[in-house]
Amino acid sequence: MRIGLLTEGGYPYVSGDARLWCDRLVRGLGQHEFDIYALSRTRRQEDEGWIPLPPHVTRVRTAPLWTADDDGAGHGRRARRRFAECYEELAGAVCAGSDDQADRFAGALYGLAELARDEGGLVGALRSETAVRALERACRAPAALRAAREARVPELLTVAALLERALRPLSLDWYEDDGLGSADLCHATAGGPAALSGLLARHFCGVPLLVTEYGVQLRSHYLAAGAAEDAPSVRALLAAFHRRLVGEVYQRAAILTPGNAHARRWQERCGADRARIRTVHPGMEASRFAEVGEAPDRGDPDTLVWVGRVEPAKDLVSLLHAFAEVRRAEPKARLRILGAPAGAEGRAYLGHCRALAAQLFPDEAEGVHAVGDNPVSFEEIGAPEAPTLADAYASGAVVVLSSVVEGFPISLVEAMFCGRATVSTDVGAVVEVIGGTGLVVPPRNPRALAESCVALMRDPERRERLGAAARARALELFTVEQNITAFHSIYLEIVAHCPVRRVVLDDAGEPLPFAAPAEAHIPGRWTGSPARAVARGGPGWASDTPVRGARLATSEGAR
Fold it and tell me: pTM here?
């Protein structure tokens, strides 16, 4: 089958979200053809280029989210009236305080999409004074959100600009029969603009939509607001828009695949039908940890290991205070912190943690003239002492995770592949990942963290049992192979229940009811057809790049 893979800020770019996971998925499903539709977030991301693509990626089409030139579409009076009506309905649904706005929002969204298709884009219209005035009227309505009623002109301008960016997929020319219309299935690797493109492909072409969320974007919008979103009215309006969009995505998707139970609960609270949700855990490469996991040596029993990005959410301060208590119980204990700081905030936090470690653990020396050695070391992967991740986990008997915020704990799964006993805080998907094969303590509780570490350090048999059970669980649930197998089954399930139907015309414009023979559904180049599918041209600001002899399908029978 042909898969339209929809990404935002990730694959196939060298840097970006979910790049590695998407690459493994595409390479693991070589029996299918993939067309990639990628939205980039920054110029730097585009300048860095793509990773090497496998031969069954037949086409890549890209479009920037970070900028868009005015499409120059000259809208007539009727088009301007249609835009004003649809945008006012959209703004009204976003600003309304009631929850019964789903149909109103959906009608306005698809109305804008149809107008964009007819007129060749809506970039200029979405930035226009008409849009700002429609927002203002919606905010002043009696039933509007309280925060929305406080919005002033600068806030309205900011909201209009951010909504234009979020609605930018409306102006793409991806939704024709030689684009996403030729796919048997759209797979959006995130919510937001990528999923919006899938919604439009479903609306225009009837292509079923699969949405994968390893991190719930709606939750991210609630937790993180940019510098331009500081005003309460801006935050409230954007949160309301994304909530409406997510509700429509969850309502229309054939299947949703969260990466863990935490993301699944978010989807259910936002209206997703539980019967259409399949939890698919991220797949990780287990082979690079096989040597450590299968080795009889289980590391230094006096060494605790922490691995990850250094940032405040990892709560290394609590870990250092917990280790101070561990040292009182086990004077030979050592703590290795291996990781690189995440940005400027991470570098400042690392400096703070180094200072705290120096204060809590003054250099110890055997004599007056000897050089002291701090029991806490801060290192990066690639250093002589830990050249690889596997070497880092191999150096200790117990791996610790001290986070206060966590999604899917990758470092925890890596430790499980290495057969290490673990002590973790109860955040995010930790309990779901551990499943009884490690110790879990409350976050921001140094005493509980210390007591659990000491208990494992003093009981080698228990460490051995937990490590073996953790490795067996990780190999069963969290490998690349299980991830690929799960998505292959889901693809077949969706296509079996949601066949794509298209009208194929001959050269005279007459329908050809049997233009797509049965063997056209078999992957490969089995058939050819002179028929042409119903298509509609139009300018667009996205780029279309065939990949290594790619074929631009003109009909289902030509595939």
Answer: 0.83
